[in-house]
Design a protein that fits this description.
It is a single chain. By secondary structure, the protein is α/β, with parallel strands linked by helices. The chain contains eleven helices and 18 strands. The chain has an eight-stranded mixed beta sheet, with helices on both faces.
Length: 483
């Protein structure tokens, strides 16, 4: 396929001479999603710069590098926000004047739009021109395709037991090095007094008909990608087919809300909560605008589905997506969506948003998404109640079990996995238990209860505020959180 366009671009991820210095894992993710990387030549280079059609290709785009050397791919899409004081007609006129084609209104922020950028001129040049028109635009940013692989570390299925709920000290572990789920379940399993608490799990795909999950799924949906940065939201309906399924998202969904008392497998930390799975990137690449829309639709489904009700949104959000590395730049549109969900969800009480910290000993501030003020960044602990390779720093919220943990997998299976990816939804399930007991609490009250109920593990000295850069506020304790 590459030879039909040009010579295949060399993979110099090991320090070659081609000059791209692309991490091989990122390149392979893009290639699996259908992108082919070739050396530049005329007229291919001109087509990429002008974002014009090219024979036999769905799209030809330039490759960019982020600040850590990760791969990004241009699109012909951008997000812009006009002055919030503009009327509908003024906004439409401004977009038309700059030859921007409206794709969709992003209703979670005032006068914010996804637009298609005209071709013939380099994208950077067009974006710079829009940004210079400060009398019109509050921001203008390109929609760049990036990898969303999920934050996990593969592990062999050696210990098919859910020590994360009740650790008896076997297999080299420490008794009690768990979140103490069993005594918390004596008080609540996530159902609540009026209705079940709703946990939204945003990921790349989930097996929605998994025997351990299907009984709890009541909403959500998936984004159908066009392969070039755009996506259409498809709402969940019972019995639907075509929902993207991936191990990572299925595992995460099970950590939060796999059903209890089934004949096979284990359960999640909130086994009676309702589940709202939202699949963003079935092929693991896409734009932050799609991720922003996912957060907005789970906070308020009416933002994407006209017939939906705003109060049908989630009570808790968990997301374990991101580049499988420490460095992640936050776009303005994703920032707005996080702020919208955190402040406006649950009828104004706000939604606690859990995000997996990156795996590895990195400063968490490098990740502008996980370290966002309205996000709870979760690290992973092991069966010995020790931190186990999570990003560190003042923004780390707390730890939850995430090493050799047991949960649901695609193919109606169960298995073992390791990663901060799995600690985050486990913690989100505990937040659902707290909300089931205290439905009128704000997201800040929920957050504070979780902090206050953590066990100070690790044998380290916590500061005057009860925080440690490698342990956060400690290891989560569900029993204390719901007492």
């Amino acid at each position: 396929m590459a030879s039909r366009f040009s010579a295949a671009a060399k993979d110099d991820s090991e320090g070659g001479k081609f000059g791209l210095a692309l991490p091989s894992r990122n390149r392979r993710v893009f290639e699996k999603a259908g992108w082919v990387f070739v050396e530049t030549r005329e007229p291919l280079q001109r087509a990429a710069i002008e974002r014009s059609q090219y024979a036999d290709a769905q799209a030809v785009r330039q490759v960019l590098l982020d600040r850590s050397g990760g791969m990004l791919v241009e699109t012909d899409l951008a997000t812009v926000q006009l002055d919030p004081g503009y009327s509908e007609s003024q906004a439409q006129q401004a977009l038309k004047g700059d030859k921007l084609i409206l794709v969709r209104r992003l209703s979670f922020a005032a006068n914010t739009f996804q637009v298609r950028v005209p071709g013939k001129r380099p994208l950077a040049e067009v974006i710079h021109e829009l940004q210079s028109k400060t009398s019109h635009y509050r921001f203008a940013e390109p929609d760049l395709i990036q990898p969303f692989t999920g934050r996990l570390t593969p592990s062999d299925p050696e210990y098919p037991r859910q020590w994360q709920h009740a650790n008896d000290g076997s297999n080299g572990g420490v008794a009690g090095a768990d979140i103490h789920s069993e005594k918390a379940w004596d008080k609540t399993r996530g159902k609540g007094s009026n209705r079940p608490v709703r946990i939204a799990l945003v990921d790349n795909g989930m097996q929605i008909n998994h025997p351990g999950l299907k009984g709890g799924i009541t909403g959500g949906g998936y984004f159908d990608s066009d392969g070039a940065g755009g996506a259409t939201f498809v709402p969940y309906r019972k019995g639907m087919t075509g929902f993207p399924s991936r191990d990572h998202g299925t595992f995460c969904l099970g950590m939060a809300g796999a059903r209890m008392n089934k004949k096979k497998g284990g359960c999640g930390s909130a086994p009676e909560a309702d589940l709202l799975p939202v699949a963003c990137f079935a092929d693991q690449v896409g734009t932050q605008t799609t991720l922003a829309r996912a957060l907005a639709v789970v906070a308020d489904p009416s933002r994407e589905v006209a017939a939906a009700k705003p109060d049908d949104g989630a009570d808790v959000i968990s997301c374990s997506l991101g580049p499988n590395g420490p460095d992640w730049a936050l776009t303005t549109v994703l920032d707005l969506a996080i702020r919208f969900a955190a402040a406006n969800g649950r009828g104004g009480l706000g939604i606690p948003i859990f995000w997996a910290a990156s795996n590895g000993s990195y400063e968490i501030a490098l990740d502008e998404v996980a370290s966002h003020l309205d996000v709870l960044a979760i690290g992973r602990s092991n069966r010995n109640d020790l931190q186990d390779g999570s990003a560190f720093g003042p923004k780390l919220e707390f730890l939850a079990p995430g090493v050799d943990v047991y949960s649901t997998k695609s193919g109606s299976k169960y298995g073992i996995g390791t990663g901060c990816s799995y600690a985050a939804p486990l913690a989100a399930g505990v937040a659902a238990l707290v909300i089931a007991q205290n439905p009128s609490w704000t997201r800040d009250q929920v957050r504070q209860r979780l902090r206050d109920s953590c066990d100070k593990v690790g044998g380290v000295v916590y500061n005057a505020h009860g925080h440690h850069d490698e342990y956060g506020y400690g290891r989560l304790n569900a029993e204390r959180a719901v007492c």
